[in-house]
Each structure stands twice: as structure tokens, then as C-alpha cells.
Amino acid sequence: MFISILIIIVAALLALVVLAQNPKGGGLAAGFTGAQQIGGVQRTADFLEKSTWTLAAALMVLCLLSTANRGGSTSADPLDEKIEVEQAAAGADQGAAQPDAGGE
Question: 69 versus 96: which is more confidently predicted?
């Protein structure tokens, strides 16, 4: 549950960082066009690019961790697991209902 919350937070931050960028070099960096600015356009663009790659990597690692922590489940669909359990229960009921043919 905790990893799922982290995934949502990282995904939202990644979306905000990507939306702050402009493919033509503007975006958030366009507001800092003055040469006297300390941050400048290039530093803002570098920060946005590095944060995009960092958040994307963090999102990938968190998704892999959440998959690894599923508890050993081999099926990705919970409905498949339910069907397998029902089939196993039905097989056990049929085996119990039939007497042993080996016999006495």
C-alpha cells in the first residue's frame, strides 16, 4: 500500500515536470530570459531534464518493487486466481465424493 502511494506521488510529480517543459525550449525556462539572472535558462532546462530522468527512473523502480511484493502470485489478474481456487475446490469435492475404487 505504501509503495502504491509513492507511485502515485512520483507519477504526479513527473507529470508536472513534463508539463513545465516546452519542446521548443520555452516552458518554465522561458521566464528566465534575462542574462543577469543567476539561474538562467540553461540551468532551469538542465534541472527539468535531470528531474525528469530521475523521476522516471524512480517510477520504474517503484513499479518493479510493487510487482515483487505481490506475495508470490503468478497471475496478474485476480479473477484468474479466483477461478483457479474454485477449480481446485471443485476437484477436491469430486475426489471426496467418489469412494476409493482400490478396494477391500
Answer: 69
